[in-house]
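Try this one yourself first.
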């Protein structure tokens, strides 16, 4: 059974990730995980360059930490299962950087006073790729390492064309799929996922109003007429998009979250099924009340 970690507390997630990294890679750099978390927390707090603190209410730093925690558990499970290609300390480090920076595209520049970072939802993946490239370049990372991080981030796009991503190795590709899996499962398994769906709707509504060059995605976001409509359609999103995506495109990497692997309970899937059941119950109650009125 996975030990619960409070994703509202960055230090708690960092401690768990650090312990897994050190246990799996005893010869790895001791300071790496704390440094990576410091970089990300500083960026989201508005202490990097000319960026403001994150003001997107759903895609905040806790959202990033939820995905980070899930990815770390997934990679540890994969390593325990002795899956190939074998995970190295260096590639673990790049994957951690990718998940920590995968939503930096929601950060606004200091001279940007129009709305919140949610307006960048249709183009946030592209902006995150750019942010990661800029930041890691300043830290002296090699071009190939920066590209690896950017390729992993590209996998998180809702409509990402995975075949067009220029992966440099099979392991890099696997880590990109693992990251995208963790991004989906980490947020949907959260205890307050259902309660935060109205907040997500507000982000979508703002993004739909924002006149970006990516009108296709903007139109998709405008498909929800209200928070209730988003909640009503979320079970379909799980069954019609997430499950096919993680079972097909992302090669069932979520199986490494089963404890023990391969036939033990999968904490993340169990929690998501609970959230979907909770949603269905809430939707049913609302519809019953509406009929009475």
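Now uncover the answer:
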């Amino acid at each position: 059974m996975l030990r619960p970690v409070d994703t509202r507390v960055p230090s708690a997630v960092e401690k768990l990730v650090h312990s897994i990294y050190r246990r799996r890679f005893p010869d790895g750099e001791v300071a790496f995980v704390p440094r990576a978390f410091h970089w990300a927390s500083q960026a989201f707090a508005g202490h990097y360059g000319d960026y403001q603190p994150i003001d997107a209410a759903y895609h905040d730093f806790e959202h990033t930490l939820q995905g980070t925690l899930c990815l770390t558990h997934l990679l540890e499970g994969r390593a325990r299962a002795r899956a190939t290609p074998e995970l190295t300390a260096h590639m673990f480090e790049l994957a951690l950087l990718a998940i920590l920076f995968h939503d930096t595209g929601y950060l606004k520049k200091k001279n940007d006073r129009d709305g919140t970072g949610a307006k960048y939802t249709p183009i946030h993946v592209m902006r995150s790729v750019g942010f990661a490239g800029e930041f890691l370049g300043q830290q002296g990372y090699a071009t190939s390492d920066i590209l690896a991080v950017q390729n992993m981030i590209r996998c998180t796009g809702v409509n990402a064309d995975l075949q067009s991503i220029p992966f440099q190795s099979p392991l890099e590709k696997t880590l990109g799929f693992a990251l995208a899996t963790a991004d989906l499962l980490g947020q949907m398994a959260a205890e307050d996922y259902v309660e935060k769906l109205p907040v997500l709707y507000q982000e979508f509504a703002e993004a739909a109003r924002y006149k970006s060059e990516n009108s296709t995605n903007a139109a998709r976001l405008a498909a929800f007429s209200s928070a209730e409509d988003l909640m009503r359609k979320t079970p379909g999103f799980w069954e019609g998009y997430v499950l096919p995506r993680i079972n097909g495109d992302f090669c069932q990497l979520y199986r490494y979250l089963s404890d023990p692997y391969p036939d033990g309970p999968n904490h993340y899937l169990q929690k998501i099924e609970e959230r979907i059941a909770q949603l269905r119950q809430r939707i049913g109650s609302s519809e019953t009340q509406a009929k009475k009125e």
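Discussion: The chain has one domain: 10-292. The first helix runs from residue 10 to 24.
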